[in-house]
């Protein structure tokens, strides 16, 4: 389960995993496999990123280069032009932004613009990328992109049958072959080859031996593709050569290597794969596959640690769809618990991938969200911490429903209550009683009610203010919606004609929630104005020791009392 003690430090943010975290996919590209072109316009991309935050995303993953099968590499300058304005705008709204890139220059620029995470699909095999991240404080995602099929085997598989009938039949075959050879001597030579000599197995391009089929008929060698060198042509899946990590591969440039690997991956997925014997199992053996995936992830994580990147900044991702067939992806997903045991935060990035379509029977990528949720749920149960999805709103609803039943998890939160219209203290007490009726929520403590000067909009009556401490099992955005319902029921006017900081019968602000950091237009956690509000910090002193120190520790700037707004001027009684 995601409910564990791991934390992930990403710049000024720290993500805890007492519940799974949602990463929303934002492709600022014209050709991504499921949503290409939908958010290519920068304004549209920014609006969509904010909408994902308001729908429940904890992280927004911004990418400017599609890495789908058959993709065309993008120049770093063009990639930066696409993503930097989007990164800057989302970071300004308090979002935790991840930059999905394999180019060092783009990663550097994005971090300067406010990105907190570098998501490298080549797994930090570029020493320049390692050199950059070791000098920053950003979080890093190490992804495995490569083929995981077993190395080629040039010898035939031997099958043993110990029955007496098989022994007798074998001896008879040997005798018949020997008799035929004796009868044909002396044989005439044709073109340097003896007639009757056993047929030599054909070799495929690249030197891989094509074994005989079970029925004794040779499978024709696959036709070579004009644009692909013979050495790159796919061998049978059961005998595909192992691909070395990019860091140890001498010749190709990283971008060319990744594009070529993804082209081969697509051909492997679609091609008929001959085999020397009938398959006895529905999936390939997991051991060699997981040795490659987990070995690469462990090695690259250690490389980063040795370079100076702290362990709590590293997240790992097995890279579903990158050089892997549907069968291999399923094997890897079933071994999620083993990958989680490595001790790093674990990403599940299966959204709308080809193997999800294969297991669900859904051809259209954009229609695979329901199947994606099912695969993600299995990964969460096995220990995945972060789920990367396209449909944030749908998955957040799915996760909230599941988590409420599967994981009892009350967390502490603080709600600020204020009123300066009508019977102020009665309004505050009514709000307290209604908060206690919110599902999966209870009121655990209340401050006294204080009178304060109006803040921001000073030409209005003084306020009555208090802080309510609650315990809740709801997600922050779900809790916020419940608080807004209470405001509406008690007569709060939120229409456009109402002043933002003007008079109101009731005002409820979610200030802070245990383990939650959130950005966006709808909700910011911790509340960005806590540190300057005297009418919040003074009532909090009734509930905790030294609230200023508490919030400073949580990354909030807290002003000195004389520099705050809405100063407390009196006490109005107990809640």
From TrEMBL:
Gene Ontology process terms (BP): folic acid biosynthetic process; tetrahydrofolate biosynthetic process
Entry keyword annotation includes tRNA processing: no
Pathway recorded for this protein: Cofactor biosynthesis; tetrahydrofolate biosynthesis; 7,8-dihydrofolate from 2-amino-4-hydroxy-6-hydroxymethyl-7,8-dihydropteridine diphosphate and 4-aminobenzoate: step 1/2; Cofactor biosynthesis; tetrahydrofolate biosynthesis; 2-amino-4-hydroxy-6-hydroxymethyl-7,8-dihydropteridine diphosphate from 7,8-dihydroneopterin triphosphate: step 4/4
Region annotated Disordered, chain positions: 179-255
Catalyzed chemical reaction(s): (7,8-dihydropterin-6-yl)methyl diphosphate + 4-aminobenzoate = 7,8-dihydropteroate + diphosphate; 6-hydroxymethyl-7,8-dihydropterin + ATP = (7,8-dihydropterin-6-yl)methyl diphosphate + AMP + H(+)
Gene Ontology CC annotation, any one: cytosol
InterPro entries: DHP_synth-like, DHP_synth_dom, Dihydropteroate_synth-like_sf, Hppk, Hppk_sf, Pterin-binding_dom
Annotated NCBIfam families: DHPS, folK
Designated name of the protein: Dihydropteroate synthase
Organism: Collinsella aerofaciens
Species classification: Bacteria, Bacillati, Actinomycetota, Coriobacteriia, Coriobacteriales
């Amino acid at each position: 389960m995601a409910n564990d003690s791991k934390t992930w430090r990403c710049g000024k943010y720290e993500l805890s995993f007492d519940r799974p975290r949602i990463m929303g996919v934002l492709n600022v590209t014209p050709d991504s496999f499921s949503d290409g072109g939908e958010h290519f316009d920068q304004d549209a991309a920014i609006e969509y990123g904010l909408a994902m935050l308001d729908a429940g995303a904890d992280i927004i993953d911004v990418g400017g280069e599609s890495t789908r099968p058959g993709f065309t590499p993008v120049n770093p300058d063009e990639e930066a032009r696409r993503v930097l304005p989007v990164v800057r705008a989302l970071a300004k709204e308090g979002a935790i932004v991840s930059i999905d890139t394999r180019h060092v220059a783009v990663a550097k620029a994005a971090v300067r613009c406010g990105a907190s995470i570098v998501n490298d699909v080549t797994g930090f095999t570029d020493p320049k990328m390692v050199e950059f991240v070791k000098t920053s404080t950003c979080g890093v995602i190490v992804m495995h992109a490569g083929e995981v099929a077993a190395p080629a085997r040039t010898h035939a598989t031997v099958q043993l049958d110990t029955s007496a009938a098989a022994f007798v039949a074998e001896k008879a075959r040997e005798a018949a072959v020997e008799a035929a050879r004796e009868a044909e001597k002396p044989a005439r030579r044709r073109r340097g080859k003896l007639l009757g000599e056993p047929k030599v197995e054909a070799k495929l391009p690249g030197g891989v031996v094509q074994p005989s089929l079970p029925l004794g008929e040779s499978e024709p060698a696959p036709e070579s593709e004009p644009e692909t060198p013979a050495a790159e042509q796919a061998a049978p899946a059961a005998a595909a050569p192992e691909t070395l990590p990019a860091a140890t591969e001498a010749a190709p440039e990283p971008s060319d290597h990744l594009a070529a690997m993804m082209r081969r991956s697509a051909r492997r997925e679609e091609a008929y794969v001959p085999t020397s014997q009938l398959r006895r199992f529905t999936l390939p053996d997991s051991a060699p596959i997981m040795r490659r995936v987990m070995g690469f992830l462990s090695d690259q994580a250690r490389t980063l640690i040795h370079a100076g990147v702290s362990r709590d900044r590293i997240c790992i991702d097995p890279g579903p769809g990158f050089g892997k067939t549907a069968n291999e992806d399923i094997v890897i997903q079933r071994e999620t618990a083993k990958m989680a045991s490595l001790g790093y935060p674990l990403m599940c990035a299966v959204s709308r991938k080809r193997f999800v379509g294969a297991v669900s029977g859904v051809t259209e990528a954009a229609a695979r969200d329901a199947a994606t949720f099912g695969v993600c749920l299995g990964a969460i149960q096995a220990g995945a911490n972060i789920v990367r999805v396209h449909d944030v709103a749908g998955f957040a609803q799915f996760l909230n429903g599941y988590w409420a039943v599967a994981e009892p998890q009350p967390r502490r939160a603080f709600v600020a209550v204020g009123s300066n219209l009508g019977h102020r203290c009665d309004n505050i007490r009514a709000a307290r009683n209604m908060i206690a009726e919110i599902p999966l929520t209870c009121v655990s403590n209340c401050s006294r009610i204080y009178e304060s000067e109006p803040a921001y909009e000073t030409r209005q009556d003084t306020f009555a203010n208090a802080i309510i401490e609650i315990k809740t099992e709801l997600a922050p955005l779900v809790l916020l919606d419940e608080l807004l319902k209470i405001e509406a029921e008690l007569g709060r006017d939120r229409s456009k004609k109402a002043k933002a900081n003007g008079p109101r019968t009731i005002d409820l602000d979610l200030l802070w929630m245990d383990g939650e950091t959130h950005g966006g237009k709808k909700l910011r956690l911790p509340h960005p104005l806590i540190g300057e509000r005297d009418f919040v910090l003074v009532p909090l002193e009734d509930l905790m020791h030294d609230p200023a120190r508490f919030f400073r520790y949580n990354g909030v700037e807290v002003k000195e009392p004389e520099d705050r707004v809405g100063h407390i001027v009196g006490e109005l009684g107990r809640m």
